[in-house]
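User: What would this chain look like folded?
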Amino acid sequence: MDQAEPGLPQSGRQRHTEAVPGQRRADPVIRLDHPVIVGYNGSTSSRNAMAYASGMALRLNRPLLILYVCSSGVYCEPLTGQVVGVQRDTEALERWLLAELDQVTGGVSVEAHVRTRRGSPARELAAAAAEFSADALVIGAPVHFWRRVAGSVPGWLARHARCPVIVVP
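Assistant: Here's the prediction, encoded as structure tokens.
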């Protein structure tokens, strides 16, 4: 029986990150033809969205692109006024996202790619959908009532994305 080394992606699962939109790491370029994109943030609804998106990717025979968007990570030190950038461990983040996918799918093999970006979640998800000509963009519903009323990522994407947007509760 073949055992994968810990920390390495399972067969069919590939990790690629983008720290800043438009700037890619030195990883080999993988062309994704019309993937199903899922926005993931760790919430219960985003886990449900990941399960839905992985099933959709299997049915459509398309790759799954898991996109994790974090804030810019830059803040201003109040006492000195110095701008500080917060570093994130992208390898640990990628392992966490792939482990979440394994839990959600029950180990069913799906061609999955992981990308991380910084910025506005709605704008980055829409940009990735346009960049990869996504077949669908799947996201979880907002958890807090105020986000449903005052404006949310799904609401913005429904108005601006150029592909079908599926909001999963």
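The two ends are 39 Å apart (CA to CA). If you want, I can go into more detail on any region.
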